[in-house]
Design brief:
Elements lengths: L2 H41 L5 H14 L4 E3 L4 E3 L3 H11 L1 H18 L4 H26 L11 H31 L3 H9 L2 H22 L4 H51 L3 H17 L5 H13 L9 H4 L7 H19 L8 H5 L21 H15 L11 H11 L6 H20 L6 H11 L22 H10 L4 H15 L3 E8 L5 E7 L11 E3 L3 H9 L3 E5 L1 H4 L10 E9 L2 E10 L5 H22 L6 E7 L2 E7 L1
Antiparallel strand pairs: 1-2, 3-4, 3-8, 4-5, 6-7, 7-8, 9-10
């Protein structure tokens, strides 16, 4: 899927969530407005207007003494004591209207939108109206103001009213916040609203005392209870203030952890030759996939986020020539590579993470069918974080350029994931990832540092023609000799000091006879030893502009020069780059040319099909003699004669001074 399609898919999902939230808010608001309207129509029939009006004014006034709930945009009001008292003494109508006015005024003072102000007025009004109706249903249909107050019969109905009001208003608000933030409503309620039960219990207790005093003393009892409400406000403000400070401290510690983790991962990336954008994409994708699969606990999400950055920490103990080898690892090299899992986990075990990072790191190379390493875990014995990380890391690695191969297309990468589904990877994780993949593309597009160009490159590869374009007309690079110049090379060899290209052209003739389907490039180490330079190619333009010199350690031939190890049938495009686009050359065998402990250069054969192990062995056997000749020529040793001949299967170079 293209990045534009992915963006559209993500936008559609966001629009769907917005519509659900809007419908939910509209439904709650409509129900609340119904309760308010019903209360307004019955308000004129409520007796003792001065008393319930005074309670309503106090409720609205004390509503300004609100405290913010840490972590969410919600405030706890101090008005509930007077509202509960009003509901017990005079019925639902005065309390419901006062609650609506209190919620609307608070929301208006905070500059909320019109729909949010209506919701903040209707939601608590509806909850209190239903709570008051429950009180009357249990205690009796007549409000307390019209009868004697009995304490023993009042506690249960009051607790029911306070409980109904608290559970409804908190759950309705938590659901709206969860829909807005894409979280589970119960998680939001449990984390941010459950503590408000203490406030409602205290308000109900104060309301019980106030109702009893009003029944005995009248409105003068309000003077005795008002200080209690202020004390409750001060206590909650102190409690929530400490919670806010603790939350801020946790955020700061978490930021410190993540900053340290990113710094460490950057050091690992620098050694592994992997770009930081790959690591950040893996982190972003892993967290998104974890949430998609229902991993909601904050500590588990944080563990996956950290493990995505640090899972390759153990590669610090793996030699660079193995990490960046542009070809298949030998059995011994692979065993050395496997050690990075336990090494990394042991390093990270010395850090006291506040979330379980180490188990994910130790298991991120385990396979679903039990064939992975280092413990051979299988199926759900593998931590879910490790199962998620292995799928995401594989996909992004396949679609990224690496020292040993160019990036694959999205289609090729997803095909590989499907091939490994049920063997290497958890089928459920693969399915969830492929379903989430379109929206993940939008994440990359929104964050240029995560590699926006990746999708454009993938789209270009998808649209590329299957048949390579015809090769351009040969143009000889300035320093390279064509094989047709062999006669001129012989003349120069006989008449005076030769050039490296002269000797290489003669050697190349026999190499072509030895490996007839290959094209050869002779790379020679520069004077400073920081790069290898293409001095001769058997095909014009094969080592064209920009690719006629390769820094030591880079691409295939540069890696071979740095590590003095032969690479067999690696990707030719890693060396040739764009110059290979018009040729059918897909494979290369690069052989180091070493003489007297010094790397003279690299002899690289490029071919349309994979070269046989026998051909690679022969090139390796003749490499020391080629290196000696090139070294002698590079030191301008006068040559009287140069002979290149095949001796059985081996090529030997004889030089006489």
């Amino acid at each position: 899927m293209s990045s534009a399609s992915a963006t559209r898919a993500a936008s559609t999902a966001a629009e769907h969530d917005t519509r659900v939230l809007a419908r939910y808010v509209a439904a709650v608001t409509a129900l609340g407005l119904f309760a308010i309207a019903q209360s307004v129509t019955t308000l004129i029939t409520v007796p003792r207007v001065a008393e319930w009006l005074l309670l309503s004014v106090l409720a609205v006034a004390f509503g300004r003494l609100s405290v913010r709930v840490p972590g969410v945009p919600v405030h706890a009001s101090m008005s509930d004591t007077f509202l509960f008292t009003s509901a017990m003494l005079f019925g639902p109508a005065p309390a419901t209207v006062a609650m609506a006015a209190d919620g609307f005024i608070l929301s208006w003072r905070r500059g909320h939108s019109a729909d949010r102000m209506l919701f903040n007025a209707a939601n608590p009004a509806l909850s209190l109206w239903l709570g008051a109706q429950a009180f009357l249903a249990v205690y009796g249909a007549t409000p307390l103001a019209a009868q004697a107050v009995a304490l023993d019969t009042l506690v249960g109905p009051l607790a029911l009213m306070a409980g109904v009001h608290f559970l409804l208003t908190s759950s309705l608000t938590a659901t709206a916040a969860a829909l807005e933030r894409g979280l589970r409503p119960f998680d939001v309620w449990r984390r941010h609203f459950a503590v408000l039960g203490v406030s409602h219990a205290a308000s109900a207790s104060a309301a019980l005392v106030l109702a009893l005093l009003v029944g005995k003393l009248g409105v003068l009892a309000l003077a005795a209870v008002t200080p209690l409400v202020v004390i409750v406000y001060i206590g909650l403000q102190s409690r929530f203030g400490r919670l806010a400070d603790a939350e801020q401290h946790v955020k700061q510690v978490d930021q410190l952890y993540m900053s340290t983790i990113r710094a460490l991962s950057s050091a690992i990336d620098a050694k592994d030759g992997v770009t930081s954008s790959h690591i950040r994409r893996v982190q972003t994708y892993s967290v998104a996939l974890a949430k998609e699969m229902g991993v909601s606990a904050a500590e588990d999400v944080k563990a996956i986020e950290a493990a995505a950055l640090l899972h390759d920490t153990g590669k610090l103990a793996v030699p660079e020539h193995i990490l960046n080898k542009p070809g298949k690892l030998t059995a011994a090299e692979f065993e050395a590579m496997k050690l990075h899992v336990d090494v990394g986990a042991d390093i990270l075990a010395t850090i006291e993470f506040p979330y379980p990072v180490v188990p994910i790191v130790r298991a991120h190379h385990e396979n679903w069918d039990g064939t992975g390493y280092p413990r051979g875990l299988r199926a759900e014995d593998i931590p879910i974080g490790a199962r998620i990380l292995s799928v995401v890391d594989c996909y992004d690695a396949l679609t990224s350029d690496r020292p040993y191969r160019p990036a694959m297309t999205q289609t090729q990468a997803t095909d590989i994931l499907m091939e490994r589904r049920g063997t290497m990877y958890d089928p459920a994780v693969v399915d969830a990832f492929l379903e989430l993949l379109p929206s993940l593309g939008a994440v990359v597009d929104m964050e240029p540092n995560l590699g926006r160009a990746m999708h454009r490159l993938a789209a270009a590869r998808e649209a590329a023609p299957a048949v390579p374009a015809p090769a351009p007309a040969p143009v000889l690079p300035s320093r390279l000799a064509a094989p047709q110049a062999a006669l001129d090379s012989v003349a120069r060899l006989v008449s005076g000091p030769p050039r490296i290209s002269d000797v290489a052209s003669l050697i190349a003739g026999d190499l072509r006879a030895l490996v007839p389907d290959a094209e050869f490039v002779f790379y020679v180490t520069s004077t400073g030893g920081e790069k290898i330079v293409a001095e001769y190619a058997t095909r014009a333009g094969l080592a064209g502009t920009g690719f006629d010199s390769i820094p030591l350690g880079e691409r295939v031939s540069g890696w071979v020069a740095a590590n003095r190890q032969q690479i067999i049938n690696s990707d030719a495009r890693l060396d040739l780059g764009p110059s290979a686009s018009g040729t059918p050359l897909l494979y290369c065998v690069a052989t180091p040319l070493v003489h007297d402990g010094r790397t003279a250069g690299v002899l690289t054969a490029y071919a349309a099909t994979a070269l046989s192990a026998e051909s690679a062995r022969r090139l390796s056997e003749i490499a020391p003699q080629v290196a000696q000749v090139l070294t002698d020529v590079a030191h301008t040793v006068p040559l009287r004669q140069a002979k290149v001949r095949l001796n059985r299967p081996d090529l030997r170079v004889a030089v006489s001074r």
